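--- STAGE predict ---
source: upstream dedup step, 1 unique chain passed
mode: sequence only
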Amino acid sequence: MNLLALDPLLSGDIDLTIVLIVLLKVGIAFTFLLISVMLMVWFERKLISDMQNRIGPDVAGPWGILQTLADGIKLFFKEDLIPERADRFVFKLAPYLSLVPAFLVFAVVPIGGDFRNDAGGVVTWFGHQTLLQVADPPVGILFFLAMSSIAVYGVMLAGWSSGSKYPLLGAVRASAQMISYEAALGLAMATVFLMSGTLSTNGIVADQATWNWNAVTTGVVPFIIFLLAGTAELNRPPFDLVEAEQELVGGFHTEYSSLRFALFFLAEFMNVITMSAIAVTLFLGGPNGPILIESVAWLWPPLWFFAKVAVFLFTFVWLRATLPRFRYDQLMDLGWKMLIPAALGWFLLIAALNIGGDRGWPTWAVVGTGMVVGVLGYLALTGAIRKATLDRAGQDFEGVN
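--- STAGE serialize ---
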């Protein structure tokens, strides 16, 4: 129970009412995610069609808003195919390894609550104080990273268990991409931990209650790195190397059909929503925002949270409609040679500034030393990359001769 004790609802004795409140929060979070996925699919198709001067979905429901529901029903009744050479148990398990982590991540995201005057986001439901999130473990962000790692297994096992070379190639490519960018993602998040002093999502939001959002206090760089790494982690354009023109197939889920394909599709869009929610929580104050009408003060934090998430969702769709797909070597170069060194260097700079502030070091001296070390590290890295490129080119030339 210690892992859940940050929620005041679970700090004392557990009775039936508390159990029912927890079940209610789980049901609300799950229902919200499902409805959000349905609306997100419609929003993406409609927005891209507008950007490309097309009509988009316009038949099922008003403005075609029920088109996603119609597609889901169609997939539900399609024939479920399992390849002859597939590992049947792993083949059936893989979609759930992708879907379940997406929901569990959203469980630690605070979507509302009053964070003014050190209130800590606490609200009162049925006579009990609680938080507007399913759970608030002290290691909430580490839990997010752990669930992201489990999702990699879903992708890898889906391709391997299909018994076909094309899904296997797509799974290897997607897994390498997700693992590579998870390093940059984690380093960008580590800067937030350093500033907030906590791993609790509720604590991180409470630390930003006075408009000192981490996107600004950390120097913007970790925020940009998080957005780039998060986009690659989600396999979203322009980093959607799972689906490549070389094969003209969907990648690791090529052999899936019916409901199991729908689960992968559901997990993909659910991950987009949860990644946007995590970005809002870490860098943009979560549900914090101005209370415009005090009589309905409880309503404004969820509205601000959903508005911020909607901006991220729009950005993801905008990138998909605008940018061409990267080559795989460009994708890996961006992650390993640019984002990871930049995230690590910025983390060390922020750590040095914090230590210098505690010990009375001049800020200019810390920043100047950091810039010198950064320039030297950049020159050493680019020199090593250039030498490796020339050596590889020389070996290729000798092989031709």
